[in-house]
Amino acid sequence: MKTSVKRLLGVGLTTVMATGMLAACGGGNNTPSGGAQGQAAPGAKPFQGKTLTLVTANHPWGEAIKPLLPKFEEQTGMKVEVQSFFEDQLTQKLTVQFTTGSTTPDVFMYRPLQEGQLFYKNGWVQPLDDYVTKDPSYDFGDFTKAAVSSTTVDKKLAGVPIITEQEILYYRKDLLQKAGIAVPKTMDELVAAVKKLHDPKNEMYGFVARGQRSPLITQVSSFLYSEGADFMKDGKATVNSPEAIKAFSTYADLLKNYGPPGVLNMSWPQAIGIFAQGKVAFYTDANSIYQNATDPSKSTIADKVGFAVFPSGSAGSKPYNITSWGLAMNSKSANKDAAWEFIKWATSKEIVLQTQQKGNPGARMSVWDKPEGTTGFPAELVPVIKESSKGGVDHDRPTVISVGEARDAVGAIVLKAMTGEDIKAAAEQANKELQTIIDKDNSK
């Protein structure tokens, strides 16, 4: 089906963004790390008198951990002061504080694949390799390999995973059943099913995903990997390979020919929003946002949503399997022992179980293996998450310092293809731009 550029550029769904609220700000205790000040009295709590500053994103994990803090404070004797910010505000605040050499915050949430390279290579995070092996009962080997790999920079552990994500396929169970279509297991089957269910005259579209230039990068990544491609290899940009071009073409064609009006303006809130309105048959994105489609207060198809493992391409099913959020320690913190005590507690089996029961997908295999560890997720989604966690790829964007520039450069391939330009020429241009970014970052 032909789709005009004008229709693609139509206005997408409007997303109302809330204004971030800051929790009380507070400075850390600047006494040297290693426990409470002075000689601890017999029976004293190990960090009595310590104040720890924690910065979180305005994220469900942050909301899940806050009610648990009083128990941690009671056990350790330390006071945890929390500040919360929206994602972009969080990055901005941390960058400013770290640039000035601030000793606070002591512990902070961060996005390993967005800021990890920058934060680590600027010396702003404390490597945690020695910490995670101090206490055998912590059982760091319980974390999935892909999740740990996402938080590793230059073979050093820059943070501990707290939220994991995999790309999955969302679909309308009722539409597939009515049409007699099996759940697609391959990319070819997905394309065929999308074509069959696409009915724009009745406001039913075959497929939707992120169409905005930068946001689409994370979701097209699984298309790349499943065709045997990647953004780069051994320091060289590879987005112009035949496998990469095939993946970009598939993604662009699905959006261009079978997507809803305004798809070029859609990031995930708009894309899942129109899926939740019952106007799209298939949608692909992170498993972590499923509640936007299954919550009856947000979705008209809450009881009709199905979940499936990402379809196989020429190289099999290789969705991204990443740590989207981690906990890190400020390298300048004066409370490193206290900071690690908090990270160890917040990522322990007991606490991961409690936060996961609130719908926060963690990285501990043992928690996923417990029936009570999956109660925060739809029963049909659990096996999809488990299967997707077995392999996959540990990044969902180019692993460079200048992530924003790289995402824009590569995202242009899909946009140009959707608006009728030659995709091979677009890929060649993007490859040159990405290589320039890689070389620039390596020279820093």
UniProtKB/TrEMBL annotation:
Pfam families recorded: SBP_bac_1 (PF01547)
Domain of life: Bacteria
Transport found in the keyword field: no
Family matches, as Gene3D superfamilies: Periplasmic binding protein-like II (3.40.190.10)
Alphabetically ordered keywords of this record: Signal
Keyword Signal belongs to the record: yes
Signal peptide start and end residues: 1-23
UniProt-listed InterPro entries: Bact_solute-bd_prot1, SBP
Name used for this protein in its record: Sugar ABC transporter substrate-binding protein
Species the sequence originates in: Paenibacillus cremeus
